Description:
Layout: E1 3-7, E2 13-15, E3 27-29, E4 32-33, E5 60-64, H1 67-73, H2 75-78, E6 82-85, H3 96-99, H4 101-112, E7 116-121, H5 130-135, E8 140-145, H6 151-157, H7 164-176, E9 180-185, H8 193-200, E10 206-209, H9 222-226, H10 228-231, H11 233-249, E11 253-255
Parallel strand pairs: 1-5, 3-6, 6-7, 7-8, 8-9, 9-10, 10-11
Antiparallel strand pairs: 2-3, 4-5
Amino acid sequence: MPQVTEVLARSILTPQKAGSLAGAYDFSLNPYAGCAFACSYCYVPKFPSARHQPEHWGGWVEAKLNAPQLIKKERALVFGSRIFFSSATDPYQYIELKYRLSRACLVELLKYRPKKLTLHTRSHLILQDLDLLKQFGESLSVGISITSDSEQVIREFEPQAPSLARRLHLLKTLSSEGISVFASLAPLLPHDGKNLVRLIKPYVSHVWLDQLRWPEVSTAPELFKRYEAYFQEDNYQRALLRLKKHLTDYELRVKP
Length: 256
């Protein structure tokens, strides 16, 4: 179990002036710092805080107890803005069952109506907030992280995160409830391209596709040795291109 610290944050909306979210989003929103899902490849440890070092990733979480109140305080920034929720944590990691900070933040966001809200998670716990999600209408989209079609691969790289089966069920459920949902194939891990596309195709109209970056901060470097051939740069780029071909064959839009 991670060490959980309750904190009071100074602000909750982080301007997106550079990086992959810039241009498409004005702010990111993270009700937690750190992530107990502890995915071995996560890029967040590349930017360690003054309190935590990269090697401790997955062993700590900070719950920003005043996150909902900060949204109210910063409400003038929320109205008409584009918000990515969350960029540096999973808003529905299991401590959400205790703190309900993501739910409380959604309640506040509903009051001040961002123009665009994207929730990003790999957790089925988001379904507990389905009543709130529906109220955002067309301004909301939900991205579900699906990094492989192999349960074994996911268990190796993401041992603390929900299973592939749960994530596919989540895609299906959100889609059936009229929620705009996309698959986040980022980073792309060892997979069978045709099968991966077959699994997600019934539920999404587009995907977010990206490669694994910053392997130097991986908490499981032995996995790169085990899958050395796959992650060899030329092979990896070919795998990305093959998957793009499978996606376009099914007329799924690819971002970026």
